[in-house]
Every structure is written in C-alpha cells, then in structure tokens.
Amino acid sequence: MNIVLDTNVLVAGLLSPFGPCGKIVRMVSSGELTFSLDARILAEYEEVLCRPKFKFEKDKVIALLDHIQHRGLTVASSPLFQPLPYPDDEPFLEVAIAARVVCLITGNRVHFPSDLCQNVRVLSPSEFMAFYK
Fold this sequence. Notes:
Blueprint: E1 2-5, H1 7-15, H2 20-30, E2 34-37, H3 39-49, H4 58-71, E3 73-74, H5 90-99, E4 103-105, E5 122-123, H6 125-132
Parallel strand pairs: 1-2, 1-4, 2-3, 4-5
Helix pairs in contact: 1-2, 2-6, 3-4
C-alpha cells in the first residue's frame, strides 16, 4: 500500500513507538507500507528530526533518512491548482496526487481541506489504522 507520511506522524512514531504513529512507522520500516516522497519532503524530515528539542542523534537521523530515501518512492509532482492554508504542507499533497497514493497520513487533517485535496484520502494515524484493518 502506497502512502504519504506527514512529518508530524514520523516524529510522533519515533518518539512514541507504541501508539498508532509508532505502528505506522514500524510498518513503513518493515516494508509493509510503501511511501512516496520528493526532495522537499526529505529535506523537511531532516530539518525537523535534527531539531535539538527532539534529541535524536545526528548519525541515527542520517541512517534513517538514507533508509527512507532507499525504501521510498521518489516522485515528481506538479504544483497545486489552489494553495493550501498552510503552504508548508503542499509538498505532501502534491506528492500524494502525483503518486496516486491510497492516503496521506497526518496529525493535522485540518491543514488539508477536502475541497482542495483532489480526491486524496487524508487520514489521521488512528483513522489509518482502522482503515488498514
């Protein structure tokens, strides 16, 4: 199953491996889920994971990003017809549309108004786990 994983889900899954976000990250790591990304998403992952407040070790972040880049599907996307309320989220929706993913998983569903999502299913981590079962 091909998905797009918002940064907040990745971070939450690394910080708390036992909740829905942690399960999703483990499913991605094991190859059970395939995820799509582009250079902008990878750069955001790196910038956020390297923030001092998370206290992730730099070498482990680099190893994770290498794994993500190797296992993920890199896609080329087109700009959205209409901007999202939060422009930093646009790469995630653009990639989801271009890759024709099953869903975009985010902790911030309100950042992705359904009328702008061009039929991309946007789910919270809990909703995704219920959907996946």
